[in-house]
Structures are given as structure tokens and as C-alpha cells.
Amino acid sequence: MEIKKILTRENRTYFWSSGDLNTEFGLIKEKDIKKSKGKVFSNSKNEFKVFDANFTDKISKIKRGPAVILPKDVGLIITSTGINKNSKVLDAGTGSGVLSSYLSNFCKTVYSYEINKEFYELAKKNFSDLNIKNIILKNKSVKDIAEKDLDLIALDLPNPEIALESAYKSLKTGAFLVVYLPNITQVMDIVKKASEFKLIKVVELIEREWHVESQRVRPHSLMIGHTAFLIFFRKI
């Protein structure tokens, strides 16, 4: 399904897939969107920029359920583990499917485990809306992983220790286990329990944007502070 991203001059964002688009800045006809070459006008003569929505644009509009992993953390997982287009990876604690979706854009196959039926159905719909074909979604516990020779396992669970033994057997030698946990006492506990793995690093990422307008340059008042700790283990 074709999806367009449509912006006002003030960067107000709309997504379009079919039909006329009704905005507070006027009505944009479907035929005008389809034939537009970068810009389109509403019936009230307001100008909009039009372009094809990319993968990240599409993920930003999926339906959310539980708290999602943010792009700053997704990027670190991808760059620190060396996964690529030939990799087979597993994401457990799928939630609304954000991490699985990003991983699918880099990897050959993503196995995604979600034990909660409601979240499973939400992720299933989101993967369908994103037209992702290389995610195998399972409504089951990650305690018993069926897949072998995996390049990465990511655990976003309140009790990741249930998957440690199974994860060790399913990962290739040299592959990574990444655990996503919100508080430091959980980090201490999982590091102690994951003794079969080599601990590589524990990281907390904080993101702060800057406001830049002519000579007025300052950090934004709000920033993305603590979301969770990323614990990187390796099977050696």
C-alpha cells in the first residue's frame, strides 16, 4: 500500500494512503496528491510538501500498546552486535513490535516471541500494516526457544532470566544476547545470573536535541532521559 507523508510549512504531519485528505488547513484532493511532484495545495490555497513515507515514517504511525523501545536504543543494538542482511535474530517481549520491525529492515529473518495475546494481536496487525514479510511472530513464552544458530537475541522482559539457558543453546558462538531493563537492581541481578555469557558492556543512552535558529542556539528544555539500561552479553 502506497503511503505518502504530507507536511505543512510549520512541519505539521499527515499520512495519506487513499481518498481525499481533510486537514484544518483545507481539503486536499486524492487526484492532486497522486499527481503531485513534491508539493500540493488544499482548497483553501495552503501549500503542503508531499513525498513517499520511508520505513521510519511508517513505524512512527503504528498503533502503540506497551512502552516501546526508542530509536536511540535500537541504533545501539544494531551497531554494537554487527547484525546484517544475512542474520537470523530473535526479539522476545514483542509488545507493539517496534524493535522487531526495525530489526526486520536489517536482517534476513526475525523470530518474535510475545506471550500476551493482546500484544501478540497488536504486533501482528502492525507487521501487516507495515507489509513486513520476514518476521515470524509466535504467541508463546521465550523460555523454550526452538530456533538455533541465531546471531542475536534481544530480551525486553520483566523476568529475562527465564530465557538465559535456552538463549545460550540457541545462539551461535560469538553471537550477542541483549537485555533491556529499566532499573539498576535488575541489571545487577541479570549480570549475576548470566554467568555463562561474557558481559561486554552496560549502557544508558540519553538524547538531547538542540534548537538552532539563526544565532539563537540552545538545548531543548525537554530531552529523552533514562529509558532503560542495555546489557550486552556475548556467547564465547
Return Rg in Å: 21 Å
User: First CA to last CA: what distance?
Assistant: 44 Å
Task: Give the CATH topology of the largest domain.
Answer: Rossmann fold
CATH class of the largest domain: Alpha Beta
Instruction: Note the overall shape.
Output: globular
Biggest beta-sheet profile: 7 strands, mixed
Unreliable stretches (pLDDT < 50, length at least 5) are: none
Verbal overview:
The strands form four sheets. Strands 9-8-7-10-11-15-12 form a seven-stranded mixed β-sheet. It has seven helices and 15 strands. Helix 6 links the parallel strand 10 and strand 11. It starts with a strand and ends with a strand. It folds into two domains: 50 residues, Vcp-like ATPase, Chain A, domain 2, CATH 3.10.330; 176 residues, Rossmann fold (3-Layer(aba) Sandwich). The protein is α/β, with parallel strands linked by helices and 236 residues long.
